[in-house]
Design brief:
Elements: H1 2-23, H2 26-32, E1 36-41, H3 45-48, E2 50-59, E3 62-71, E4 77-84, H4 88-100, E5 106-108, H5 110-126, H6 135-139, E6 159-162, H7 164-170, H8 176-180, E7 186-189, E8 195-196, E9 203-204, H9 214-221, H10 225-242, H11 245-255, H12 264-281, H13 287-303, H14 310-326, H15 329-338
Parallel strand pairs: 6-7
Antiparallel strand pairs: 1-2, 1-5, 2-3, 3-4, 8-9
Helix pairs in contact: 10-12, 12-13, 12-14
Length: 347
């Protein structure tokens, strides 16, 4: 009996080993296997403000490319992806396409590529930005990333350059209002800049590439100091009018024997910010249209919330909206104080 049990145990162990092997993703198998790795990087980080890294690997009968986009500003590690089945010829075409677009590529050591990726990840993390999904798995194509939370970030800058919507989608460390109110960050906002939809992986922008001529696009690249200061002031004002609304909602809920969410202040800031964005985007729209757009922006902000916090954020927003519908006067007063044209209808 013992002999039969040993044989059966061995057979089970073999079957489990086969299942484990089959369950390992091709990306992990390629990452774990020893093989040839060829790394390339785009031009000067300080001049261009960002750097693109390509890593081609062939091992264990698999081959593919990993790509990373590292931004000099607080966004840090901006994007990462892996494509399998890319052969050498196709990889060369990818490099040639970059050169054809004026992006000079150079071969770099694996250590240098990992240094940029680790630094970008730390800079994003330290500044409260969302890191790209599966970036660690993608980085493992190059080898061990090491202690990235202590990586060198001396070449990065306290700056955000890009579309305002991109900031809203990436920022998870604090509210947009308080972030814009910070005076230690330089803001370079561009409404024509593309930004990534984290749900679809596609890039979008408010304007088509041909919607602006060169002169108009250049004018939008950097806001003058007084405009940046106004944005900072607006962010502080949004927070100032939103925070006092949270205790009022807590009291309104307490009368109904409900415990208010600790994120009610965030919820109020989100709905006020969404309303102002809707008003700015549709200055001639009706109140109902503005409110519909406000809710859509609010729902989008929830979808972009960190998965670990989304349940509490939904609860806070649901409580806030119920209170708002029961008594809209404080909200309307807050929006009118910030933007006299913004008076969303709640019908």
């Amino acid at each position: 009996v013992n002999k039969k049990q040993r044989h059966e145990a061995k057979r089970k162990a073999k079957r489990l080993a086969v299942r484990r092997q089959d369950s390992i993703s091709p990306v992990k198998r390629l990452s774990d296997a020893k093989g040839e790795i060829d790394c390339w990087s785009s031009g000067d980080f300080e001049i261009m403000g960002q750097i693109q890294i390509f890593a081609y690997k062939q091992a264990a009968g698999l081959f593919g490319v990993a790509c990373f986009l590292v931004d000099e500003g607080v966004v840090g590690l901006k994007d990462s992806w892996v494509r399998l089945g890319v052969d050498r010829k196709e990889f060369q075409r990818m490099l040639d396409a970059g050169a054809g677009s004026g992006i000079r590529m150079r071969r770099v050591a694996i250590e240098e590529a990992l240094r940029w990726i680790a630094g970008g990840a730390r800079w994003a993390h330290d500044n409260g930005m969302r890191l790209p999904k599966d970036w660690l798995r993608h980085a493992s194509m190059l080898g061990a990333i090491g202690d990235w939370k202590n990586a060198d970030v001396s070449e990065f800058a306290m700056e955000f350059a890009g579309h305002p919507e991109d900031l809203r989608r990436r920022l998870i460390g604090e509210s947009v209002g308080s972030f814009l109110a910070r005076d230690d960050i330089r803001f370079v906002l561009n409404s024509a800049a593309p930004y990534k939809d984290q749900r679809t992986g596609e890039y979008a922008s408010d304007l088509n590439d041909d919607a602006l001529d060169d002169e108009e696009a250049e004018d939008d690249l950097e806001l003058p100091d007084e405009t940046t200061g106004a944005l900072n002031a607006l962010g502080a004002r949004i927070e100032m009018v939103a925070v006092p609304l949270a205790p009022a909602t807590q009291e309104w809920l307490a009368v109904r024997n409900e415990v208010g969410s600790p994120e009610l202040a965030e919820a109020w800031q989100s709905v006020i910010t969404s309303s102002l964005l809707a008003v700015a985007a549709m200055p001639n729209a009706s109140h109902d249209e503005i409110w519909k757009s406000t809710i859509e922006l609010l729902e989008e902000s929830i979808r972009q919330t960190d998965p670990s916090a989304v349940t509490e954020r939904k609860r806070a927003v649901e409580q806030m909206l119920r209170h708002l519908k029961a008594d809209s006067a404080p909200f309307v007063a807050a929006v009118k104080a910030l933007s006299p044209t913004g008076e969303p209808s709640l019908q």
